[in-house]
Amino acid sequence: MRIKLNRDQLEILLDKAKDYNSICGVDEVGRGPIAGPVVSCAIVMGGDHIDGVKDSKKLTDKKRRELAKDIYSRAIAIGYGIVEHNIIDEINIRQASLLAMKQAIDNLSDKKGNPYKCDLALIDAEIIEHDIDQIAIISGDDLVYEISCASILAKIFRDDIMIEYSKKYPEYMFEAHKGYGTKKHYEAIDEYGLTDIHRKTFMKKYYEQRNKSNR
């Protein structure tokens, strides 16, 4: 089964999902940045819903990390997928995002590190190439609890990667903008050039515009 739903069709998702025993939520972060990887998380949750869980973009870093403690403690299984900048340049960001989601599902493991297979994947907005049954829903990261949990963990995971990169490339302030194209980030690129982790295909339009303005 592969179904794609609009945000106002949540009742269909709830009706279909009740026929499955083990359900994972899947989301990715990092489509927009001009540097660093795209990261996905797949998660199977247990226990009661955690208050305050919603789309990671609507939460502060402090709140995300507070919620993550409860998410980790109640999770039955977690998997991550990481697709690096060079692969993004090769296959484009959408395909890289779909690949990261597939990896996350394949990497699901329980708290003892044992591989874990679920019956149904609830995915934010996308259908992926995988044999698992899937329901994609627009704005799923804000509407579906399991996807929201995945969104929070994926965001923290990627942010921590970029914070580590900031130690290697301190001039670029990755710890602040996490690789997004902020004014300070572009100023650093103008002064120091591109690093090994920049997405070269994302920079073409910027360089074209800069070259025009310099004529």
Automatic annotation (TrEMBL):
It catalyses: Endonucleolytic cleavage to 5'-phosphomonoester. GO terms for biological process: DNA replication, removal of RNA primer; mismatch repair. GO terms for molecular function: manganese ion binding; RNA binding; RNA-DNA hybrid ribonuclease activity. Its EC number is 3.1.26.4. It is an enzyme of class 3 (hydrolase). GO terms for cellular component: cytoplasm; ribonuclease H2 complex. Its main location: cytoplasm. Manganese or magnesium. Binds 1 divalent metal ion per monomer in the absence of substrate. May bind a second metal ion after substrate binding. It is found in: Cytoplasm. Belongs to the RNase HII family. Endonuclease that specifically degrades the RNA of RNA-DNA hybrids. This is Ribonuclease HII. It comes from Helcococcus kunzii ATCC 51366. The lineage of its organism: Bacteria, Bacillati, Bacillota, Tissierellia, Tissierellales. The gene is rnhB.
